[in-house]
Amino acid sequence: MADIEAKSTAILYEAFQSEASDIHFLPTSKGYLVHYRALGEIHAGETLKAEDGFRIVSYFKYACGMDIGERRKPQSKAISYDWQGNGYTLRFSTLPAKPSESLAIRISPRTTPYTLQSLSLFASDTRKFTELAHCQNGLVLFTGATGSGKTTSVYALLDYVQQSSTKMIVTIEDPIERPIEGMVQIEINEKAGITFATALKAVLRHDPDVIVIGEIRDRNTAELALQAATTGHLVIASLHAASASLAFARLAELGVNVRVECVRAVIHQKLAKVVSKNKRVAFFEWLLKDSLLKGADSNDKSGEIEALRAVRKAWAIGAIDRHSYNLLTDKGMTEVGSGYR
């Protein structure tokens, strides 16, 4: 058991050192493949013997509180973990697969290096986020692929709200990825009957100013979110949609008729890898009222023709060359730190 614990810990440490966002244990007929995702790309690790891989998966299931004997149904759990003075939330997910169970571990730092000013290359994006933070009511929707940095952006927005006001903030998350002092944070627990919808209904009786919904998944949650947004609350939520403009179509699929006037913004986020640099930067597609804005306003000084071309290219291919990156940081008027994970 000690050897398995040591090996499991070594795999985690490897992920931390390489700044990976995910670890995958893939079962094959020859054993388990260990893969790491870093900067959005999968990197192959070692191959474990089938028996060792099985025992390591079982160890992680035990460590996070899963039922280690249940291999016929998917399971998910999250725990806090500290390494070299840094805190992480580890989200474990299992799937019943052939020839054996598969395990994925999502790694999320409990603190974010990002401020509202460092989220984007463009001052125009910073200005829009700042304006949203001062709104008293309305719905703000974040859309984007899994791993596109939506949660990072939401937390940066919440940090700014908390620092610039005395608003009561309540979040509903699955799981809580970053504990924040001074906010009420609720974690989804479907076995205990705590879903996004039931939690949101209770939150509305808790006198909140700002409500954060980790994900709108069903009609009930969507309708409650819209109700809150039209009754004096600022509601920030994420939604699975392929673009900002398709967010309304997604809500329609859930059976919800959206009053456009209550929507403050729909923000679609995408990450682009900076070629030759170990970082990724975020680009934002904005839907404000009836206007779809991408990257930067055409009237902004930061939106010169060459910079706009670089934005559109990065948005399209998911990568940006060094020349374009330098161009955007020169014209964007905001610094970007170490980059998104």
TrEMBL record:
Gene3D superfamilies the record matches: 3.30.450.90, P-loop containing nucleotide triphosphate hydrolases
Domain of life: Bacteria
GO molecular function: ATP binding; ATP hydrolysis activity
Example of a GO cellular component annotation carried by this entry: plasma membrane
Domain Bacterial type II secretion system protein E span(s) in chain numbering: 204-218
Keywords: ATP-binding, Nucleotide-binding
Xref: InterPro entries: P-loop_NTPase, T2SS/T4SS_dom
Family: Belongs to the GSP E family.
Stated name of the protein: Bacterial type II secretion system protein E domain-containing protein
Source organism of the structure: Shouchella clausii
